[in-house]
Amino acid sequence: MERVNSFLGKHLWVQVVLSLLVACAVVLLLSPERSIASVPLYVVFASVGGVGVMLAVRRREKRAAGGSVDRLVSLDRKLRRGEVPTAPQERQAMRDLVEQRLHRSRHRVAAQVFVAGLFCAVVVLTALTAGLPQTLGMGLFAGVFLGWLVLYGNRQHRRLRAMHTELTAEAGQDRRR
């Protein structure tokens, strides 16, 4: 799994392609009446904004990590494992990366509630306008996605908080010396 994470971290285009393929599969499952040729065009058009945001976030994180994709992947691996960097430059880069991610996730609870409300509305509207299979599919998708969103988001936030605590505690000890 570590190799997969490293590969996906280094090659952002693979993440985009895999996301688009999954989105195409979901659209085909939820709207079987669509032609197979129109689904990729629809998904690509609908995903342009998300890909742009992903590229902008990646550029900022790469800058915070020192300007290198390999360094960003290395810091991300250490963050997932809970390893605090020992080199002063690497600690500073990790501190910048963690602070940036914490700042970006400061409204995560409100965003999770908003997304849950949107998914509930979509399930209700699907129930009112589509058949039972589409409603069940959308309900299942919404439940699984929201569960994953909350569990993974909370886990990532705990990691960021723990690393921030470690880095600021070490910075405080370094200042006292």
How would you characterize the overall build of this protein?
With 177 residues, the chain is mainly alpha-helical. It is built from seven helices and no strands. The protein is elongated. The protein has helices at 2-10, 12-30, 38-64, 69-81, 88-104, 108-129, 132-176. The mean pLDDT is 89. The chain folds into two domains: 1-104, no CATH class; 105-177. Helix 2 runs antiparallel to helix 3 (38-64) and helix 5 (88-104) crosses helix 7.
**Number of domain units:** 2
The biggest sheet, with number of strands, parallel, antiparallel or mixed sense and barrel status, is: none
How much helical structure, as a percent, in the residues? Answer: over 70%
Please state the overall shape, judged from the principal axes of the Cα atoms. Answer: elongated
Blueprint of the fold:
Layout: H1 2-10, H2 12-30, H3 38-64, H4 69-81, H5 88-104, H6 108-129, H7 132-176
Summed up:
Keywords: Membrane, Transmembrane, Transmembrane helix. The chain is mostly helical and 177 residues long.
